[in-house]
Amino acid sequence: METQPTSCESYAKHHGYQVLGHLGGTCESAKSDERKEFKRMLDFVKNNKHKIGYIIVHFHDRFSRSGTSAAFIADQLRQLGISLLAVAQPVDTSTAMGMLMQQLYFSMSHLDNHQRKERYTAGMLAMVRKGCWPGKAPMGYDLLKANGEQVIRPNKIGRLIRKAFHLKAEQGLSNTDIIKRLKAPGLSLLNQTLTKIFRNPFYCSLVTHAC
Predict the structure, then answer these.
(1) What is the distance between the alpha carbons of residues 112 and 39, in angstroms, rounded to a whole number?
(2) Which domain holds residue 174?
(3) Could you report the per-residue pLDDT of 69-98, keeping only the tens digit for each?
(4) What are the residue boundaries of the Resolvase/invertase-type recombinase catalytic domain, all occurrences included (predicted)?
(5) Sign of the four-CA dihedral 86, 88, 89, 92
């Protein structure tokens, strides 16, 4: 039983099913089958397969949004005698047409995930190309509002980070020496943090993305 528990409870009661457990409601995304609550549910039904006949959810995407992987898991459960029932999307998976419909529901949820990701990525890229900043300000910068848009500006820490680059490039100082040199002015960093900063293209005025 997951999310919309009232409708699932009512469905079970209406059909005379005894509810053995309620799982879900942990705010984990259904796009991954690696989520803890999903694994706990699979372990529970497999360990109690002789007592369980159905897994009840409100929509198929509350079970999983992983597309073919979700269909494969649902098929494995059917082989154990356990059927997935979606209250708001009833299908009869004892028939070939019913199984196809269930697979379509899974595929549509998977497609929706990818479309949302595409829209999100496009929005983020558009913001960056306009000179705006879409997320949390990097170390050394403050996030400000300018003409209704989010922009970033270097702060005191940012100016010290810039000095760290100069000390490395012009004097060849080690990270340890740079950290010691800049601690008094107000820059307190671990060695590995400074290494990450030196390797981050952003601090060379380059914005990278994984699109």
Answers:
(1) 23
(2) 141-204
(3) 888 999 999 999 999 999 999 999 999 999
(4) 1-131
(5) positive
pLDDT tens across 161-170, in order? 999 999 999 9
Is residue 145 predicted with pLDDT exceeding 90? Answer: no
Across residues 141-158, what is the average pLDDT? 87
Domain count of the fold of the chain: 2
Identify whether the C-beta of residue 148 lies closer than 8 Å to the C-beta of residue 170: no
Q: Which of 144-159 are b and which e, b meaning 16 or more Cβ less than 10 Å from the residue's Cβ?
A: eeeeeeebbeeeebbe
Burial class from Cβ neighbours inside 10 Å (0-12, 13-18, 19+) for residue 30 reads buried
Per-residue CA distances from 128 to 119, 131, 134, 204 (Å): 14, 5, 7, 16
Q: Please measure the distance between the N-terminal and C-terminal CA atoms of the chain and give it in whole angstroms.
A: 37
Strands 54-57, 83-86: pairing kind: parallel
The SS3 assignment for 84 reads strand
pTM value > 0.70: no
Question: What CATH number corresponds to the domain at position 92?
Answer: 3.40.50.1390
